[in-house]
Write a structure and sequence with these properties.
This protein is 23% helix and 18% strand. The protein has five helices and eight strands. Bound molecules: iron/sulfur cluster (SF4). The site of iron/sulfur cluster (SF4) has 10 residues, from loops.
Length: 175
């Protein structure tokens, strides 16, 4: 039906590094994209160390010869892509830790509890469900959403100490 399938994977050191080439090979015969996302220290992930995308790219380069970089377009979001000759799908890299792209981020997240988060890294935002329970108007709702989008933080501070860090797990915040 023309759907584009993307498989996102996070490589955690010593757990699934050996599987990088297996992931890449999933794109050989099928037109699906495999995307490597650097581990962000949120929730359970704080206990682990991720593998940088530079390291993953080096491993891929050691195993494949004809690789070309794809031009970036607006629809590719934060991912940089490469293509391996004769492979149907592409390989993408999303590198929030080694190459912060927050300044281009337009993402907000609505959790299953109705809380609108401005950013994965911080715990603040607005409890939309509470406002909806209080029967605010559609106009007021739109205003709240706009205000929170325009008030997104400049960038994450994963590698620094700061207040308001998110302590929930990724599956609780829709990461
Ligand atoms: S601003 Fe927040 S949600 Fe957006 S890319 Fe940065 S860390 Fe992720």
């Amino acid at each position: 039906m023309g759907l584009k399938v993307k498989i996102n994977t996070v490589i955690v050191n010593d757990i699934n590094k050996d599987e990088i080439i297996d992931f890449v090979n999933l794109s050989k015969d099928k037109n699906l994209d495999i995307r490597f996302i650097e581990l962000m220290p949120i929730g359970a992930a704080k206990k682990h160390r991720g593998t940088s995308n530079e390291e993953i790219l080096n491993i891929i380069r050691e195993n494949f010869e004809n690789i070309k970089e794809e031009n970036k377009n607006k629809r590719s979001g934060p991912a940089d892509y490469i293509k391996i000759e004769n492979y149907k799908g592409k390989i993408g890299f999303i590198s929030p830790m080694s190459n912060c792209f927050c300044e281009e981020c337009n993402r907000i997240r609505l959790t299953s509890t109705g809380f609108l988060k401005k950013c994965l890294h911080f715990n603040y935002g607005v409890d939309l469900k509470k406002h909806l329970d209080d029967k605010i108007s559609e106009e007021e709702l739109n205003k709240l959403i706009y205000e929170n989008i325009y008030d997104k933080p400049e960038k994450h501070l994963f590698l620094k100490e700061c207040d308001n860090k998110e302590n929930k797990y990724m599956n609780q915040i829709g990461g």
